[in-house]
Request: fold
Amino acid sequence: MRINNNLMAMNTHRQLGVATNGGAKATEKLSSGFRINRAGDDAAGLAISEKMRGQIRGLTMASKNAQDGISLIQTAEGALNETHAILQRMRELAVQSANDTNVETDRNEIQKEINQLTSEINRIGNATEFNTQKLLNGDRASEYTSKSKIEFDLTGMTAGEVTVMGIEVNFSTDISTTANAIKDAVESDDILNEKYTVTVDTNKVTIETKENGPSDGMTVDLDSATGITSKDVTRTEGTKNDDGVLQFQIGANEKQSMSLEISDMRAAALGITEDGTDPKLGVTDGTSNEIVEQALDVSDHTKAAKAVTTIQEAIDQVSAERSKLGAVQNRLEHTIKNLDTSAENLQASESRIRDVDMAKEMMEFTKQNILQQASTAMLAQANMAPQSVLQLLR
Reply:
């Protein structure tokens, strides 16, 4: 028998410490609701759940971003709704002015309203904002900063025809003549000549946009030509500046965004004004009284009738822009639903890793609590054991 080292008490004390620690951990989990409160609880699980948390919070914010995007679109589309109404009124006025039952005085009064309505379209375009950002003045549209061009070489051509932007040019015995025929064909077409410049260098033909812009419509078909050394058509697209285009972050990670381009919806961009400062046709930017351009002239039948067509084209342009905005809004509404569903499913996955099973942990807590009570009782008994040595002293 030994009294200096009470091994039973030491063992019981150690077991009591284990039970106490186990009970403390169970209490912490039950009170916090988390199975993992520190990395030591489950190192791998902690890393996985933290990554999931980042995704969940990112998806939630992306959903809010999409909602903000819808608000922006509604602001722009609401403004264009009024632009539409103004254009419809202008069309009505142009039709009225085209009727020769009106005298000059009548048409002058109609012209005044046309001028004011056109100025209001400018005001809407210049003043419509969302969070201090202009929406309809062209700032949110992409802009080409260089010209586009196509180049092809007719060297070796012996037969057939060349089709350039829908115009067929038949083979000539003199290749350079064929090349010049292409130039003449484009320049004799009013619509094409307004947009493109054709340059001929021996057998090489270069077609370039007259203004900075895309290569849309610049087509060349050499399939029907024979003997050409190469039927390759070199296309150089104009450089496009997309700095102003809106980017909506609709995902939790990089490169999960969508872009929205809003065209210039002011009078000049809609084609219902022209350069000039004639007071009779004067149009302002809508924010001041300074005349900056001229409205459509409806002073006689011919001009008014032409204005009807021009205004209709503007109406179609606004309709197309509103349709585009509506399509993007519908897309964002589906995006929000998808993001919310993904966040919910990911939250469920994170919960299975991070959250505690309360029923299971309550069992563990009860177990550790009973062990603590039993260990405390046994420690008291173990501490009394050395007293039996006193019986030997009697």
About this structure: The helical segments are 7-32, 43-97, 104-127, 175-187, 190-195, 301-354, 358-384. The radius of gyration is 40 Å.
